[in-house]
Amino acid sequence: MYAQLVDTGAKRLKDLEEMSAEERAFQERIDAEIKIEPKNWMPDGYRKTLIRQISQHAHSEVVGMLPEGNWLTRAPTLKRKLQLMAKIQDEAGHGLYLYSAMETLGADRDEEIDKLHDGKVKYSSIFNYPTLSWADIGTIGWLVDGAAIVNQVPLQRTSYGPYSRAMIRVCKEESFHQRQGYQILLDLMQGGTDEQKAMVQDSINRFWWPVLMMFGPSDADSPNSAQSMAWKIKRHSNDELRQRFIDQTVPQLEFLGCTAPDPDLKWNEARGHYDFGEIDWSEFFDVLKGNGPCNRERIETRKQAIDDGAWVREAAKAYAAKQRARQAA
Amino acid sequence: MADWPLYEVFVRSKHGLSHKHVGSVHAADRRMALENARELYTRRNEGVSIWVVPAKEITASAPDEKEPLFDPSQDKVYRHASFYELPDEVGHM
Ligand SMILES: [Fe+2]
Ligand SMILES: [Fe+2]
């Protein structure tokens, strides 16, 4: 989801007998739901996979600010502008909580950001879609943050202590994001013109499928899931979370008076879940490869932000050095 | 972030409890660490006081010291109030 397709480097799961004493003690600790902390011994694969997963997650939070930033100067009222700004600032915070958690594993923040800018690591596919109308800001808060919540709530119980604590902070802040988004759409649907209502439906039509893709490939195509689940850095399968999201979202969609662009979406009494249509995975893999509508623009914007801020960072460093020299004198 | 040292952040909530570790920030100096911590960890009234401490100044116990450090306290039940049984007539004590 915010971390899609994280490679664990493990072809298959080892059972307890095959493990070294250290590995076994580690796995038993995880099985007993005792958190792994930075100074504890951990297998190399666990460390590397977590760095990959947390950095992807952090990059997603940071890149995720860009589609919303697009509407900051064009928010319809001052109130909406302040709300959107607060939401975006939260996302910057989420990125920072996560980079901090990642650093406890020995990774370097600058290096990981360089990897992002060089296209060596990914961020969530969803942020490569454009925000064409104000309704998209509502749809993102409601659906994209809604999907993020479904993914992040179980991660509060992830086995790695600093990651789990970061997720607890993040989850506390997310529900405001989703509610402000839904309220934007409700306002448009309940008090808006026909044109504004059509704008909401158009926005949902464009985002519906990409949002479902956020949960990652179907379980059959998730070769790394078993290891990640054993390590408890992933707690539910992609398909399970996707289904949970759809089940809770459809009633909200109906309340809005909108529809999903999926003729197969209907309640299945026997399953106790909504059935839904086939996802076009070729689009997902294409976007991940860098061919989504906004991939290039997103990375360019990130790089430019880092480059344009270089003089500020240098000035801060020079100032700190001067202060230190003055104190020493 | 090799240039900017890491600071650990502690926040005291308004309920008068002790400062509690909430996370960390990078900053060029202490003043900036404090400002970054404010921006990152107290956007919603989470606290009334912040401490920032250079991470390298913290001395921490190691995981393999867990037994020598903490096991000795496990067999000292007499340090807990519940160890001392008193007749009901004494009432709440
Ligand atoms: Fe977030
Ligand atoms: Fe969010």
TrEMBL record, chain A:
Q: Output the InterPro entries linked to this UniProt entry.
A: Aromatic_CoA_ox/epox (IPR052703), Ferritin-like (IPR012347), Ferritin-like_SF (IPR009078), PaaA (IPR011881), PaaA_PaaC (IPR007814)
Q: Which GO terms describe its molecular function?
A: phenylacetyl-CoA 1,2-epoxidase activity
Q: Which GO terms describe its cellular component?
A: cytosol
Magnesium is among the record's keywords? no
Write the Enzyme Commission number(s) for this entry: 1.14.13.149
According to the record, the signal peptide region is none
Top class in the EC scheme: oxidoreductase
Q: Could you tell me which SUPFAM superfamilies the record lists for this protein?
A: Ferritin-like
Q: What is this protein called?
A: 1,2-phenylacetyl-CoA epoxidase subunit A
Provide the organism lineage as a comma list. Answer: Bacteria, Pseudomonadati, Pseudomonadota, Gammaproteobacteria, Oceanospirillales
TrEMBL record, chain B:
Q: Report whether Calcium shows up as a keyword of the record.
A: no
Q: Which UniProt keywords apply?
A: Oxidoreductase
Which superkingdom?
Bacteria
Give a GO molecular function annotation for the protein: phenylacetyl-CoA 1,2-epoxidase activity
Its EC number is 1.14.13.149
Is Oxidoreductase found in the keyword set?
A: yes
Q: What's the protein called, per UniProt?
A: 1,2-phenylacetyl-CoA epoxidase subunit B
The scientific name of the source species is Bisbaumannia pacifica
User: What's the name of its gene?
Assistant: paaB
